[in-house]
Structures are given as structure tokens and as C-alpha cells.
Amino acid sequence: MLAAKNQTHTLLFTLDNPLPPELAGPHPHQAQHGRREAQASFADFIKKTGRTTPLLVARFIARQIAIETQKLATGSLLAAKKAIPNVEIDFTDAEGTADAYTLSDHIERLRYLEIQRNEEEEGMLISVLRHALPGLEEFMTAQKHAMISGKMSYNAFGVCYGGGRDDKVRGFTSSVHT
Question: Residue 177, SS3?
């Protein structure tokens, strides 16, 4: 629960400051209303469409942002010669090793579908990012959103309880690339 909060949830679904405490400055309260509306619209869209790809893409982008802001926080603590907090270690922390395997490297190796751009989905995610921290919307381009959506669509799989389901099958009319 704490890892999810630090990695994605704070940025996407709360009004908490998404920056680590080492980097967090005053968080303007006047922007909270717009942030809450953007988050609610995004959550309603996911519920309405029943698709998990927008949520997977949002969590992936939030995770990348969390990794980069943690690097900045660690760098500022080192510069100030302060104690570095113990951060949860997972496969994305391999950058200090000889392998240097990151989350971005993992995604780059995935196969994908070429899918049509969903401007509504893309706009909602950009709105969530913009309201969390102004400037984050520049992190998400139309091409990047379509590429990550295609990779998530191809590589995600459903978990079916109680013998499975056959009422949610969706076909794709796209070609598969490696």
C-alpha cells in the first residue's frame, strides 16, 4: 500500500503533494479543485469504458515520474550531506549496478499493437498530470501515449476468477510489431 502510494497513487488520485518531502515546497491550495475534478473525470472515464489500458498507462507514467523525482531528492540530500531515507528496492533500482536495467528498458522490450489515438483518454491523463504539477503534461506526448497504450494492450492479460469469463473479449484489427 505504501509503495503504491509513493509510486503512483499520490500523483494520480490524491490531493497530496506528489513531490518527495526533500523537494516539496508549498503546494498551492487554489489548484486543488481543478486537480480533484481532473482526477474524478479520469476515474469516471475508466469506470465508464471498463478498459484497464488507460489506468495501466497512467500508472506507468506516474511510476516513471516518481523514479525521476526520487533521483532528484536523493541528489539534493547528497548535496546537502544529509541522511538518505531508505527507499523500497525493486527491479527499477538496478541503475546503480552493472546491469543498469530500468523500468523504461523493460517497456522498450515489449511487443505492441499499433492502435488509433484516443484523444479523450490522452487529454484526461494530461489534465491529471497538469493539475498535479504544472509542466508534467509535457512529459506525455501523443506519440508516447499511443506507444505505451499499444504495449499495454498487447502485453496485459486478464485475471479471471471462478472459471473465467467470455463476455469481455475485445478484438483488435491492428498488426503486431516486435
Answer: strand
Q: What is the 3-state secondary structure (H, E, C) of 51-120?
A: CCHHHHHHHHHHHHHHHHHHHHHHHHHHHCCCCCCCCCCCHHHHHHCCCCCCHHHHHHCCCEECCCCCHH
Assigned C-alpha cell, 177: 510489431
Is pTM beyond 0.85? Reply is no
Compute the distance between CA of residue 119 and CA of residue 18 in angstroms, rounded to an integer: 25
In this model, does residue 170 exceed pLDDT 70? no
Helix 119-132 and helix 142-155, axial crossing angle in degrees, nearest 10: 110
Nearest one of 88, 73, 75 to 19, comparing CA atoms: 73
| Amino acid identity for residue 165 in this structure | R
Cβ atoms < 10 Å from Cβ of 162 = 5
Confidence of residue 51 (pLDDT cuts 50, 70, 90): confident
Whole-number pLDDT of residue 71: 81
Q: For the residues of 148-176, what is the DSSP string, one character each?
A: HHHHHHHH------TT--SS------S-E
